[in-house]
Write a structure and sequence with these properties.
This protein has 2 helices and 9 strands. It is an alpha+beta fold. It has one domain: q2cbj1_9rhob like domain (Jelly Rolls, Sandwich). The strands form 2 sheets. A 5-stranded antiparallel β-sheet has the order 1-7-4-9-2. A 4-stranded antiparallel β-sheet has the order 3-8-5-6, with no helix packed on it.
């Protein structure tokens, strides 16, 4: 059990869900190289056995590719993971590995509600995003094109919320921009809304998988 104590007035925030969202310095130049690399990978991958590089994510090893921009991306991810763990207040070393795969969303593509089992943290880095003006304005106004939504992990926590209560809205929605990196606990359910644009929506998703040590066990 963690040693958490109420403040001097007796209040204690329980079960927080930490979320990281940041813009990565130097992303413009890196994204051009990443986009070229990912599209080349897609062409080779999809023509090999009829598989789709986006949906066949379990067989992906994007970060194992020897390329300067992949080294840059790994450095950005690992730095963000380290910052995330420090913000959590962990006072011991944590060892992890990364699994990553590209997502290429064309017009009409989306990702159903899901989480990422068997990993500790998950995240996405955005390589290319359509401009707001490029989305189909004639589409239904509840499609939230290009956005990603995250949902309160406490089932039905908002059922008795009232105005002004921060638990009223169970959804956290983000419209990402190229160069943005997000990181969250892998248990957090999320979905990607449809791309209603002819422009590509390209990202790299990743999982942070712990290399087990007995020191991780609660005391």
């Amino acid at each position: 059990m963690a040693n958490q104590y109420p403040n001097k007035d007796g209040f204690l925030d329980l079960w927080p869900t930490q979320f990281l969202q940041r813009s990565v310095p130097g992303a413009d130049a890196a994204n051009a190289a990443l986009l070229e690399l990912v599209l080349e990978m897609e062409q080779k991958y999809n023509s090999s056995d009829g598989a789709d590089i986006t949906s066949d994510y379990l067989s992906q090893s994007l970060l194992a590719i020897e390329h300067p921009v992949i080294d840059w991306l790994k450095g950005c991810i690992n730095k963000s993971v380290g910052d995330y763990l420090k913000q959590q207040g962990l006072n011991y070393n944590v060892d992890w590995g990364l699994q990553a795969w590209p997502n290429i969303n064309r017009r009409g593509d989306y990702h159903n509600l899901h989480n990422h089992p068997h990993s500790y943290l998950s995240g996405t880095y955005y390589v290319a995003m359509p401009k707001l003006s490029e989305y189909d304005q004639s589409a239904r106004n509840d499609l939230n094109p290009g956005a990603i939504s995250f949902y309160d992990p406490r089932a039905q926590a908002n059922m008795l919320s009232i105005r002004g209560d921060g638990q009223v809205d169970a959804e956290h929605r983000v419209l990402p921009e190229a160069g943005m990196l997000m990181l969250w606990p892998s248990f957090l359910h999320h979905l990607v809304h449809p791309n209603t644009s002819d422009a590509l929506r390209v990202s790299v998703s990743f999982n942070v998988v712990l290399k087990w040590r007995d020191e991780y066990l609660p005391r």
